[in-house]
Amino acid sequence: xxKKFLTFLCAITCVFGLTACGDDNTISEYQQTRNExxxxxxxxxxxxxxxxxxxxxxxxxxxxxxEELEYLCGEMQVEVEGYEEAFDLNVxxxxxxxxxxxxxxxLKDIGTITGTGKVDLKIDGKTIVTEVEVIGEKGNATAEVxxxxxxxxxxxxxxxxxxxxxxxxxxxxxxxTLIGMGTVFIVLILISLIISCFAIIPKIQAAxxxxxxxxxxxxxxxxxxxxxxxxxxxxxxxxxxxxxxxVAVIAAAIAASQGAxxxxxxxxxxxxxxx
Length: 275
Prior knowledge:
The chain is about 55% helix and about 15% strand. It is an alpha+beta fold. The chain folds into two domains: about 20-165, Roll (Nuclear Transport Factor 2, Chain: A), CATH 3.10.450; about 200-260. The strands form two sheets. It has a four-stranded antiparallel β-sheet with strand order 3-4-5-6. A hairpin with a 2-residue loop joins β3 and β4. The radius of gyration is 47 Å and the shape is rod-shaped.
């Protein structure tokens, strides 16, 4: 039993030992050649997009469809330092249009590109991802250029990402904080003003009610004053027309005191002198 256990243990050890002997990082000579071409090709693509496509010197990207861009770029070649033959410019139309948008935005921060530096490269499935160090007049950036992992090295994506210093990042964070806090305080002040207006509304309503009552009392006083003036001057009302006028005045005064707009339905039963 002990011998069988030792045999089994040795077998397992050999299996793991053989597995460890494999090297996943080993690449073929053909793949190494593609990597070298991609590393040399990527900086030229960055320069071409920034200097020719963004400024429209070679091609006005905004004027063409994706299919037209792929066709027009297919007629162009890119000369790469260290290679005698120029590379065919194979691009994805959508990728190129988006790359131009990204580069235009990035160039606003770093200014004109004055040169390129180190190139980092890695294989990601069917693509080769390169990161190119970009040197600008006002700052530096990193350009990510993704190419197809084949003999065509087709451009599938590109972007320009400015490198922010710690001071710039802190300044931006501070501005965002101030804007956020300022907005909150402004909203709180507006809410406080609205709440404070609630105390003024009852006063406005009371003043309006007083004006309304004063207007009613004025109408009644005017009517009574007219009646008293007639009595004091011993004016004898003989004509029935004068009686109707007096009744109309009194009815209007009563209607004003009641807040009515018409005297319909009013019946004058008696008129008494107010003491």
